[in-house]
Amino acid sequence: MNPPVSGNRLARHPMMQLVLSRMREFWRQPAAVFWVYGFPLLMMVALGTAFRNRPVDKIPVTIVETSEAPAILKILQQDERFIGPGGGVEILSLEECKQRLRTGKTLVMISANASPDADYTFTYDPERPGSLAARNTINNLLQKAGGRLDPLTVSNNEVREPGGRYIDFLVPGLLGMGLMGGGMWGVGFAIVNLRIRKLLKRYLATPMKRSHFLGSMMISRLLFTVTEVLILVLGARWLFGVVNHGSFLAVALLVILGACQFGGMGLLIASRAETTETVSGLMNLVMLPMWIGSGVFYSVERFPAVLQMVLNALPLTPLIYSLRSVMQDGASLLSLLPQIGLISLWTIVTFALAMRWFRWQ
Amino acid sequence: METPAIRCRELFKTYAGRPPVEAVRGIDMTVAEGECFGVLGPNGAGKTTTIEILEGLLPQTSGEVEILGMQWQHAAESIRESIGISLQETRFSDKLSVLETLTLFRSFYRDGITVSEAIECVGLEDKAQAWVKNLSGGQQQRLAVAAAIVGDPRLLFLDEPTTGLDPQSRRQLWDIIRRYGAQGRSVLLTTHYMEEAEQLCDRVAIIDHGKIIALGSPRELIARLGGEHVIEFTLTPNATTLNQQENGWTQVNHVTGSVYEDGCHRLTVTQPHLVIPQILSHVEQAGAQLASLTTRHARLEDVFVQLTGRHLDDTLEKQA
Fold this sequence. Notes:
Number of domains of chain A: 2
Helix content of chain B: 25-40%
Largest interface: A-B, 29 and 33 residues
Oligomer: heterodimer
Number of helices of chain B: 12
Number of domains of chain B: 2
CATH class of the largest domain in chain B: Alpha Beta
Number of helices of chain A: 14
CATH topology of the largest domain in chain B: Rossmann fold
C-alpha cells in the first residue's frame, strides 16, 4: 500500500500540495501547454522568418511592349533585384501589365514615350509597401543609363549583425506578451474555473489558509514562467542567434516583476467573475489594447504623442520597454527606475484591489 | 450534560433581493454527539441554506449556531479542523487522480487518517490512480465523502450525498455512512429521498418553506400518522359515488387517514386485515369494482404528504 503522503514535512505542506496540483493539472492539459509554451515560440518563428533580412529584396515589374522595351529590360537587368524568382522584369501587352498591377503581382509598370512630355512613365500604387522604393530604384538605373552623373559620393552601411534586426526587437516584445497572457490565463482563468466547479468553496470548508491558496497560485505562476521564458530565450538564440546584451540578472528580475504584475491583474479580473465567458471577455478587453499599443510588434513611438502618454502608462509598455533596453542596449536597471516603479505600482494596486474584492464563493 | 454536535436556535436567513427571499425562517435543532440526523424536504425548502450556515460557509441573518460547543465567529479554525463536509455539487479537478486529490485535502488538516485509509473506507482502492474524470457518478460521490473524512472529523456534513445516483451506488454510500456513524461520530445529512432518511437517520427534521414541520425518529413520525400501514386502491371508472366521498373512509374502523388523489384512494390504517374486508363490502354495495389494491408499510413520504398535502417528488418535478 502507498504511504499516506510520500516524503517529508515539505511534501505534506498544503502550499506544496496546492502547487503540485496546479502543475499536474497544467501538464495534463495538452491544449494549455501548447498555448502557453508552443504558441509564443511559433509566433517568433513565423514573424522572425517573415521579417528576416533577406539577402536582396526582389522587385517585380513589367514593361509595356514597345520597340524600346528590350533596351529598358537590359538596363534593369544589370541589377540582380530584377532577375530571378520573386523579381524579374517582363515585357507584356498594356492590358496584361495593367492587370498584373491591379492584382498586386507587380509593383511598377514602365511605359516608354507614353505621354508627349515624358520619356518614361511609371505607374504604381504609392500605398503599396515597396512600390515607391521600386520606382526610385528603376528611376536611378534609367537616369544613370541616360547619362546622369551623381555629384556626391556615398557609402552604405547596412546593419545585419545580431542586435539590430527585427527579431532582436521582437523577442523582448514576445517575452512581455507571454508574461501578460500567462498571468491572466494562468491565474485568472484557473481561479474562475475553480469557482465554477465549487472547488474554491470546498477548499474554504477545510482548514486551508487562504494565504496558502493565493501564495500557491503565485508560486506556480512563477514556476511556469521560468519554463516559458527559457523556451523563448533559448529558442531565439538557437534559431536566430538573438543574444542578450544586458545582464541576465536584470532580465530575470524584470521577468519576475512582470509575472507578479500580471498575476495580480489576473487575480483582480478573477476576483468576481463567475463564468468563463465573463472572465475571457474581461481578459481580452484588458489585453487587446496592450497587444496593439504596448510595443510588442512595433515601437510605441509610431503612435501620436497624446496617445503615447496613455500607452506608456499601461502595464505592458514599461515592461517591454525595460526588457528591450536591457536585452538590446545592455541598459542597467538603475536607468529603468521610472519603468520599474510603474510596474511595481500596477502590481501593488491590482493586488490590493483583488484582495479587497475577491469573492471566495 | 454532553456537548451536542450541533445546536442552533432561531436561525433565520434572508437573501437580499426584490423581493427578499426568506430561505430559512426560524429553525431550532440539536444534534446529539454520535447521532445521525437527517434534514428532509423538497428542493427549495431551505435544506442547503441551513446546512451551509451550519458549515460556516454562509452567514446567518440572525440566530445562534454552535458546532461541537464552538461558535464560528470565535473558533472558525478549530471547527474546520473537526468537521468534514461534502457539498451538493463539487467537481474535483478532472485531471488529478483519486490519490492526488485526497493527498491535497489531507494536507489541509493538522490531524487525520491516512489517505489510503480514506480510500479504503469508501472502497476506491482499485481507482486510487484513476483520474477523477474517469470515475462514475457514484465513485465521484464516494471520493467526495473520502475528502470529507480524510481529516478524521467528529462531525460529518453531507448535502444530498446520493442525489442522481443509481440504486446500487446509493446503497454503497449508505453502507459507508452507516459504518462511519457506527464509530460514534455525528452525521448531518440532507436528502429528499425519504427512504434514505429512514435507512440512515436516528432522527429527522422535515423542512418545508424554511421551517421545521416535523421532528422525530422516522418511526415516531410514521407513528404520528396514526397507522403504520397504507392501503392504496383504485376503482373502476363507474364508481363515481364512492370516488366522490373523499374523506368518507375515515369513518371506517381502524382507518386513521384518507387521501383521494388522481383516482387513487390512500388510507393509513392500523389493522389492514380488518379494514380490507370492509373496503370490499363498501365497494360491492356501491355496485363498483376494484381496479387495484395494494398494502404496504407507511413511509416518511406518507408523513410528508399528510403534513403538506404535497408529494416530495411533485415538488421536484414542478421545480425542474
